[in-house]
Amino acid sequence: MELRRFTQPNKPTNTTTVSNSEIAKWNILDRPLTRSRDELALSTFSFLFAEAVQYLQTRVQQVSELEDKLNQLGYRVGQRALELLYFRERINKREIRIVSILGFIRVQLWKFLFKKSADYLKKVTDREDEYYIEEEEPLVNRFISVPKDFGQLNCAAFMAGIIRGALDSAGFTASVSAHYIHRAESSRRAVSIFMIRLEESVMNRERRLAG
Amino acid sequence: MLYTLFVVNKAGGLIYQQNFSETAAKLSSNDYLRLASTFHSIQAISRQLSPVHSRFGFGIERIETDTFVLQAFQSQTGVKFVVTASPETKNLKNFLRRLYELYADYVLKNPFYELDMPIRCELWETMLQRAVEDHQRASS
Hints:
Strand content of chain B: 15-25%
Number of strands of chain B: 5
CATH class of chain B: Alpha Beta
Low-confidence stretches of chain B: none
Strand order of the largest sheet of chain A: 1-2-4-3
Radius of gyration of chain B: 15 Å
Family (chain A): Belongs to the TRAPP small subunits family. BET3 subfamily.
Number of domains of chain A: 1
Order of helices and strands of chain A: HHHHEEHEEH
Number of helices of chain B: 3
Protein name (chain A): Trafficking protein particle complex subunit
Radius of gyration of chain A: 21 Å
Subcellular location (chain A): Endoplasmic reticulum; Golgi apparatus, cis-Golgi network
Strand order of the largest sheet of chain B: 2-1-5-4-3
Mean pLDDT of chain B: 91
CATH class of chain A: Alpha Beta
Main location (chain A): endoplasmic reticulum
Keywords (chain A): Endoplasmic reticulum, ER-Golgi transport, Golgi apparatus, Transport
Oligomer: heterodimer
Structural class of chain B: alpha+beta
CATH topology of chain B: Beta-Lactamase
């Protein structure tokens, strides 16, 4: 097959030298932390995330392991995102109650990461230590269709990891997992929920603060 | 009215096929595969027949007959979108561009899709359906 039409005419290469300060401008590590937010194209993120999922797939045996790996990946993001958010927004108040930290994650952290707050924060009715954040269409799942043989895998496990990382850094150790919920009444796509189960030590502290 | 859509990979293999209408010709899946690769080859040959060598042209873009038209679009990476429709159907070119966009979004950004393999993505199906309905509405 002829591939000639794909090749572009040779452009003259740019030979001007680049100064160090210009390189520094491109290097993310050399930028000041206070810099106003940069937005990233959704496509760029989606390709990177798809690549990450593909890479992790080669390193696991089972679907549940893949979910764990995604969660771990998000954990690191969550830790850093919380730190950066506090720093940039100059927040001096530290949340110590469960509902307020969860609200903070739902609104501020979500807006910081995804430019919108999460749809709902709800409490599991018959459990004291369980909450869930509901999101109709998580950003990371925008272009992802999970094949049938992957069962209930939800790639938003990455976002669950972010929540876990942020909660952990804030002193609320918890386990967070992402699930699909099928609403029978609507034929639309399944919504995702992030199930948050707080650890016993956190609950004890909460009881002390409440009492 | 739209009849049938073929998506052909750069090697001439059929990776997606769907009928949009009851009146579309129904063939066996083997015949669809054969049709796709035949068209792929004809297009490649037609490119060489051209008296002028164009860097961007990809050969046959449209075939018109009494009973249907066939419109083709090829991306820079060699993926072909081919649609057949009734002769009076308009805007087929735009429709195929729209499909290319959907393919780039919902197929290529899906980590569970393997390049050049048959497309089995739920979201692609949904969005494709929507695009077809939009096209139908716009042209009716």
